[in-house]
Amino acid sequence: MPRILCPLLIMLLIVPTFSSAEIKTFTHSVKQPFAGSQSPDDARVGAIHKAKREVLEMTGTYLESRTIVKNSMVEKDEILALAAGVLQAEVVSEKKYLEGNEFGIYVSAKVDVDTSIIDERIKKLLKDRELLRKYQESQKREKDLLAKIEQLEKENRKLHNSQTPIDKQKKWELINQFQQTIKELTAVEWYNKALSLKSYGEYTSDVTSKAIEYLNNAISLDKGYGSAHNLLGWVYDDTGDYDRAIESYQKALEIALKEFGPEHPEVAVRYNELGLAYYNICDYDRATQSYQKALEIGLKKLGRNHPHTKIYQKNLDAVKKQE
Q: Which of 47, 141, 164, 216 has the most crowded CB, counting CB atoms within 10 A?
């Protein structure tokens, strides 16, 4: 019997190296064994996401030391989102290995930081806190999915280490869960590609089609991906296609209500965005209803002085002037 899946092992290779006077390179490698109910392809995708995420975490520590970040008082939980928003992690090598009876894959990822432009990119993203919040959502989702894979790996090891015959039903359940979680991770990757287009400018005609394609890819893999529906609304909103924007925002709101419940701050954000779309088509009655619901949640869950609550109040006041 082949050896059972081992815990993920991580090796730090270079922190950091210098390829030129203005480029700092951070490299990170992951060693991922696989066996049992986890397929080599699933293990590979999980390892790639983990390697990219952790090299960005390393880079985030560096960004945290930059004067512009210190002066902006960026929160700890925003650092990784900031790194993901201004930098690109890329896989530089993949290599399968066989050590005794253990099969696995090495994945190495790197991030290049151009010190001549990084502060300008940081400044731009810090000005758009809503975009930064979307990066936070994405990074949290990826973290949760990687944690789920780690839990599935533990169950996999337990199942295949058992001295009793393998429960075939449990094995198939694990296989299906691995596959579904990998699909959702891949959906996050497509979402991040669309989000990166927003990071470098507005959704003009030359990038809109790509953003829509990426987001539709994400949604096809994970139909319950509320953030993808929401960002699709952003794309349509930016290009003036308000009917489609409203359709996407409504879907995002429907998912948020189901996932979080009717009084969660995330639901308030969705109501507010839907209100903006209604405002853009001069449907002031529906805009008022949406803003009012956002404000009610904000007042109850965040308090009157929270920045989001103030925005909801401001939007509601503005639309009432139009009525």
A: 47
Cα(229)–Cα(253) distance, rounded to whole angstroms? 9
Question: Is residue 204 helix, strand or coil?
Answer: coil
Partners of 5 in beta bridges:
none
Q: Is the dihedral of CA 133, 139, 145, 151 positive or negative?
A: negative
Triad 76, 81, 87: Cα angle to 5°: 125
Are 135 and 195 a contacting pair, CB within 8 Å?
Answer: yes
Which residue(s) pair with 110 in the sheet? 27, 90
Q: How far is CA 224 from CA 86, 174, 242, 251, 259, in A?
A: 27, 21, 22, 9, 9
Output DSSP code: residue 163: S
**Per-residue 3-state assignment (H helix, E strand, C coil) for 306-322:** CHHHHHHHHHHHHHHHH
DSSP code, position 73: T
pTM of the model: 0.85
Token pair for 177: 């869960």
Per-residue pLDDT reduced to its tens digit, 28-81: 999 988 877 888 899 999 999 999 999 999 999 999 999 999 999 888 889 999
Question: Are 185 and 49 spatial neighbours (Cβ–Cβ below 8 Å)?
Answer: yes
d(CA 226, CA 266): 11
